[in-house]
Design brief:
single chain, 424 residues
Length: 424
């Protein structure tokens, strides 16, 4: 019998569950026909509830995982400032990934459109010629810089600058690249969490991340009311007519923006990530399932008790679902409790849940590829066309396909590492 592993399997399982919830809610949003939920309302509402746990789960697990990784680096003796810098760089890298995913979606979405898409990006002018010249000189070994990353970045930057310079500034879809999505919130949240907690004494890090999380949660309703005018039709019409104003609105959309200005926003979503970082010290060392279950139950109880006493600046029912501190605490309680429940699973189930572990390890890849498969142009025949049962079948098939692609990607990465090691 193999000796028990010290790997925290529950980390992969909980990330994997967030991926499953995300696939389910995306398929349900994109593929089901209007009115197809009739007769299946209860099951539909259950699926929507589970899907609503996806984004908080990704954020909570990102904060928790980042803090646990820092604990491991600290045990290896890595200097605190170096750990903080490295964590911030990972956040910046993820922010770059977020924008590249958006850019890819916009370019492919307008692939055959005149004045948009890849044909427009590849159009010829002095900037694009310079950019492609730099990239070609490196790939053909005409120029062999010691550090190839900076020249490549300059070449790509010149091409993109050409893209906007030649009229893409007025292209109707360009602002989609700058729209705030969950990856953007994850990245900014990781940078903020790194600044607050990484490399600091444990008690200080917990106090700062927990305190800022609560501050964000309770301030969100009032900031939402203050900035709500930016999501109204009159303001959106002014933005649509002024590309400069639209670009200047991006920081405001990060703070608080609803669709179509943004898909997610920092308030109050970033508080889930900070809360995950705050509970992370309890997850070091041995598993404490009962403690996490107790914290989750306590948070939920507190949320139910304080909810009638919290005065919100709006009586709109939708406002509560978007901004109420009690609703934030309830969702956080579910994820903390889920951590405890997964910790309690015995080693016996590890082989049976290996597929879920794969999803957890490759959560970023699975997120990107399934979003493109769900909302991309190749899914057009399915969008808003399926019955409820066909949509549920589509969810199951997408989960299977996403897993197959995640396994293939993991094996590809492993092969690259092995070849690199053989060369070394």
């Amino acid at each position: 019998m193999a000796p028990p592993t010290s790997r925290k399997h529950w980390l992969d399982w909980q990330r994997g569950l967030a991926v499953l919830f995300m696939i389910e809610v995306h398929i349900l949003d994109a593929w089901i026909a209007a009115g197809a939920r009739a007769g299946h309302e209860r099951f539909h509402d259950l699926l929507m509830f589970l899907g609503g746990l996806a984004a908080p789960g990704f954020l909570y697990m990102a904060g928790l995982s980042q803090a646990l990784a820092d604990e491991a680096h600290a045990r290896k003796g890595v200097e605190p400032r170096a750990r903080r810098r490295a964590a911030m760089k990972r956040g910046l890298w993820l922010l770059g990934v977020a924008y590249m995913v958006r850019l890819f979606s916009v370019l492919v979405g307008g692939f055959w459109s005149w004045g948009a898409g890849l044909p427009y990006l590849l159009g010829v002018d002095v900037l694009s010629v310079a950019g492609f010249g730099i990239l070609l000189s490196i790939t053909t070994d005409v120029w062999k810089p010691k550090d190839w990353r900076k020249p490549v970045a300059i070449g790509l930057g010149l091409i993109l600058l050409s893209f906007f310079w030649r009229g893409a500034w007025t292209w109707g879809s360009w602002h989609e690249v700058f729209k705030v999505d969950v990856l953007n919130v994850l990245a900014v949240g990781m940078i903020l969490s790194a600044f607050l907690a990484i490399g600091r004494p444990r008690a200080v890090g917990v106090a700062l991340t927990a305190g800022v999380a609560l501050l964000v949660a309770f301030a969100t309703p009032w900031i939402a009311v203050k900035l709500g005018y930016r999501d109204q039709p009159e303001f959106l019409a002014r933005l649509a007519a002024d590309p400069g104003a639209k670009l200047a609105d991006v920081p405001w959309a990060y703070v608080y923006g609803l669709w179509p200005r943004s898909q997610f926003k920092l308030l109050n979503w970033v508080a889930f990530l900070l809360a995950g970082a705050a509970v992370a010290p309890l997850a070091t060392g041995r598993s404490r399932p009962l403690l996490f279950l107790a914290i989750g139950l306590g948070l939920f109880g507190v949320a139910k008790v304080i909810d009638p006493w919290i005065v919100l600046p709006s009586t709109d029912p939708t406002f509560w679902w978007l901004n109420a501190p009690s609703w934030f605490l309830m969702r956080l309680a579910i994820h903390v409790g889920l951590t405890g429940a997964l910790m309690a699973l015995p080693e016996l189930v590890v082989p049976a849940l290996r597929w879920l572990s794969t999803y957890g390890r490759q959560s970023l890849f699975a997120y990107i590829v399934t979003v493109e498969l769900t909302y991309g142009a190749f899914a057009n025949p399915l969008k808003k066309q399926l019955s409820f049962r066909a949509t549920v079948t589509g969810i199951a098939l997408m989960i299977a396909l996403g897993w197959v692609l995640s396994v293939a990607w993991e094996r590809f990465q492993r092969g690259l590492r092995e070849r690199k090691g053989a060369v070394a």
